[in-house]
Design goal:
two-stranded antiparallel ribbon; alpha+beta; about 140 residues
């Protein structure tokens, strides 16, 4: 990271070059978990301008690997508030954070697998029965 690179976390949509990189990368998310390395990176991204072509390839990288920012993504108040939340975890070691997040996810998955007290009833379509259209066609002009 050079002196031109602002504090992490950069907005989604930011296009940057990584140290030693030959292609530009567009940031698409934050804090991806690499389960093989038990590490949480700062960013996840795609090669710009190609985007996500193959789902088995994920580009995870840290803020310190950014050499240059080519384009700064969009940021609003919601983004700034979200970044404040991320900054809480910014100084925690990646492996330690991975353990915390994994533990939280395991607890959440356990809770989600429990049956809910009030579940929405399932609605089944009846063959031959007309349902309400999703688009109001009453104002369309017929030729």
């Amino acid at each position: 990271m050079n002196s031109e690179t602002p504090q992490k976390y950069l907005p989604i949509g930011t296009v940057c070059m990584l140290n030693g990189g030959q292609k530009s990368i567009m940031i698409t998310g934050f804090c991806p978990i690499n389960t093989e390395e038990e590490k949480i990176y700062d960013y996840i991204g795609v090669v710009y301008p190609f985007g996500q072509i193959v789902t088995s390839i994920t580009l995870m990288f840290d803020h310190s690997q950014i050499a240059k920012i080519l384009y700064m993504g969009y940021s609003n108040e919601e983004d700034k508030e979200f970044k404040k939340e991320l900054e809480i975890y910014a100084n925690i070691d990646g492996k330690e954070l991975y353990k915390k997040v994994s533990s939280m996810l395991s607890e959440q998955q356990a809770e989600e697998s429990l049956p809910k007290e009030t579940e929405t009833p399932q609605v089944e379509a009846v063959p031959g029965q007309i349902s309400t259209p999703l688009v109001d066609t009453s104002s369309q002009i017929n030729n």
